[in-house]
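LAB NOTEBOOK - FOLDING QUEUE
OPERATOR: T.R.
BATCH SIZE: 2
PURPOSE: Compare the predicted structure-token outputs for two unrelated chains run back to back under identical settings.
PRIORITY: normal
REVIEWER: second-year student, initials M.K.

ITEM 1
FIELD SEQUENCE / FIELD STRUCTURE:
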Amino acid sequence: MRPARRPIALLLLVWFLPTCATYQTTELAPHEAVVGHEAVKVTLADESSAEVTVWEPWVRADSIGGVVDRNDNWSAPLASVAVLKTKQANAWLTLGVVVGGAALALGGFVLFCAASDCYNQG
């Protein structure tokens, strides 16, 4: 029995399209920026100025917190946040993935036909 190819292709497309997003600096207030995001990147304005990925972020009073490296008690004062980045869709990356995927599929089909001599079977 031969599996249907369209449902598989559609499933793969739906699976990979959410990856067409990048972290971008947000201009929103932290209270608004973390709403609905599974993760944000926070750069603190201290001497290390390290970027920390915060999963399940929350903002309460004057602090931002969430899960960092399996530590669910991480928090920092909002005043110490230098940069806050949220994951946003990237239209150019999405277009590149769709066009690149279609080009690869077409190229693979042409190579398959050339190798199996399917042009002369009609």
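ITEM 2
FIELD SEQUENCE / FIELD STRUCTURE:
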Amino acid sequence: MGVSWTAWAADQLPQPSVPPAKGGAPVPDAAPAPPGGATPEPTPAPDAAGDAAAAEPPPPPPPPEATSATLPMEGGPKDRPLTKDFPQKGAMVLQSVRPPILETPFEVFDKGYVTPNDRFYVAWHSGAIPTTVDPSAFRLSVHGNVRRPVSLSLAEIRSLPKVEVTAIDQAPGNSRGMFQPRVPGVQWGNGGMGNAKWTGVRLKDILDKAGIMPGTVQVRFKGAEKSSNPGVPPYMKSLDLAHATNGEVIVAFAMNGAPLPVLNGFPLKLVVPGWYGCYWVQMLNDIELLSAPDTNYWMVSADVVPATARGDVQPGDTGYATRPVGRMVPRSFITNVKVGEQLAPGQPALVRGIAMGGDTGVARVEFSSDGGKSWTTARLDKDTGKYSFRRWQAQFTPKAGSVTLMSRCTNTNGVSQSRDANWNPAGIMRDGIEAVQITVGDDGPAAEQ
């Protein structure tokens, strides 16, 4: 039996819960029978107080679920539909149906440092991805500049020493919708990212099964995703050999303690901590060792930035050299206050957020409530790994008027977010400080304590 969009193989992996039919409610479990088959005791009649309580009107129905999300972009369109129509996913911001591209609603990031599997963003490069995977027939091929080509089953891969890393998977174009002037491509808000505990095996241990031949310079990865454009090769990405064998790159078969969702790469996903998600090849089934640098389209033409420190050029610039996007840069976000929100003046307000150090850990986060004129050091929550989100919080007492909130991350290499965002025609590797504009007035809500 195979794994499809809607079901797991019962003999290989645990079955997921089945959501209720659209518009319906879950069927409750039957009440357990009493021990020994005895007749259950009748429910006692309510007393007078119970009668009075029963006579109270029922609580009002919950508000209807949101059907759209507003992304914090300058210019329009800002609204995107929310969908629950994709398998193993809850409510997600719909960016594209084919290929499937789903954004994590930003409020999810305020609930914890790990992003739940059913709210984890989805990004594919073509619509030609398998909808069924048979775990028993699956093989991972390792070939090229090796001593002995191998074809590994999932059981053989799982027999290798198991490792776990908590790391951020972020689309290189995350926040593309905020680039000014605007650029083509998926108009992501800030939800093209997620953080998970990835379980798998070291890539190095898999490569050792085949034996690395002298002269190998790069390792290329390909998944089951096919090209839907005759002029473009299947999606492939490469890492330098030293990076591929450093022990940090893993081949994951689980995230957050559960099998990978199909839309997040089941059965295997390459995890490259500290690097953009374009290298995190999904449905990984082919590894090739190369004796020359990879010049395929996806390395030299797609996902490239100007060969400057920040991948930054001025709009209209031409003739500059480019390089493949690679290491992530520091970023931070405010998660519990939205653009346009109103607060009451004179009451202490708590601001929460998340930060990432990019290719290393978070050293500090600073907070500003005056548009960057002054900064205070935020309090960091526990460190869950240098490639993980680091939660932070700060307090301020708002004054009436228009207020601009900002946060700034500095990583353990001493690299800080730039005051102004970079720009490039691909709309990738955004690194600037994000601003949250709010209004403080007498009719604002009570501040969170």
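REVIEWER COMMENT (ITEM 2): The two ends are 52 Å apart (CA to CA).
FOLLOW-UP: none requested
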